[in-house]
Write a structure and sequence with these properties.
Largest sheet: 6 strands, parallel
Number of strands: 8
Shape: globular
Number of domains: 1
Strand content: 15-25%
CATH class: Alpha Beta
CATH superfamily: Isochorismatase-like
Structural class: alpha/beta
Radius of gyration: 19 Å
Helix content: 25-40%
Number of helices: 8
Length: 282
């Protein structure tokens, strides 16, 4: 999509949201999120700037995909941050589940651990659906260099350290377990899901690139939103652009917002679930 079309689309979204809020009642059961994206207001060659708008989602047609929140990562720094994220994520997941949002657990390469569990069978037994022709979506180059694996704890070497999802996260009755894009697509179509909220790790790798990640699901026509305060990136500050881990992670979020999906926060999601009024902010 060209820059003028991006800007025009954003204006249309904002306008339709204002109409829904001020001129007509919003859809029954909808919740409202404060979303952040990137626009190029002065068109090609001009700077990209942050823009915020309010978007509505329906819990009945929304799913959360918890991506690769493993029990252990080969990078010690990543393991520490995942443990911290899991503690913050669990109460958000509980509130979302109670509101009727479908919870999908996707700890890749650990399906043997969940063999024949109820959540795993929900994925395997979903009716087969054929994905549509993929949308052609403009992409860009990541603003960080993660070619060294992105680990910020010296001496750690890549290996498979994970066996299951982080035990701080509850897999409740009705939750789905899968790490395969086509399986997850089947579940989403069976449940009439059109909107995906992504949480987990890592934004520059699995969140974007898994078979159930933002890139693939967006190409299949789903509305994707990343929950940026319940994510992390694999970035080593010793690599380009030589900024802190936090700053490098924020650059990845900005990249996703520019090309693939708007972002929100867990506080915005919780406020939306409770019906509270939200104000702009980071």
């Amino acid at each position: 999509m060209t820059a003028p079309r991006i800007f025009a689309s954003l204006v249309a979204v904002i306008a339709s949201t204002v109409l829904a809020r001020g001129g007509a009642p919003s859809g029954e059961g909808e919740i409202h999120l404060l979303l952040r994206t990137r626009v190029q207001p002065y068109h090609q060659g001009g700077p990209w700037v942050e823009a915020q708008f309010e978007g509505a989602i329906n819990p009945a047609t929304t799913a959360i995909i918890i991506t690769d929140m493993w029990d252990k990562h080969w990078c010690a720094g990543a393991t520490t941050r995942v443990n911290q994220i899991a503690k913050r994520m669990e109460p958000v997941i509980e509130e979302a589940r109670n509101a009727g949002i479908l919870i999908l657990h996707s700890p890749s390469e650990t399906m043997d651990f969940y063999a024949n569990t109820p959540g795993r069978l929900l994925a395997r037994n979903a009716p087969q659906s054929t994905p549509p022709e993929e949308l052609k979506i403009e992409d860009g180059t990541l603003p960080i260099d993660d070619s060294d694996g992105g680990c910020d704890t010296p001496g750690d070497k890549e290996h498979k350290a994970w066996t299951r999802e982080n035990p701080a996260l509850t897999i409740a009755p009705g939750d789905v377990v899968s790490d395969q894009g086509r399986e997850i697509y089947n579940v989403l179509k069976e449940r009439h899901i059109d909107t995906l909220l992504y949480m987990g790790v890592h934004a520059n790798m699995c969140i974007l690139n898994r078979s159930f990640g933002v890139r693939q699901m967006s190409k299949w026509g789903f509305r994707s939103i990343i929950v940026r305060d319940l994510m992390d990136a694999m970035y080593n500050p010793a690599s380009r652009p030589f900024v802190s881990h936090a700053a490098g992670t924020e650059l990845v979020y900005e990249f996703i917002e520019r090309y693939w999906a708007p972002s929100t926060t867990s506080s915005s999601l919780l406020a939306g679930l409770s019906g509270k009024t939200q104000s702009s902010g980071n």
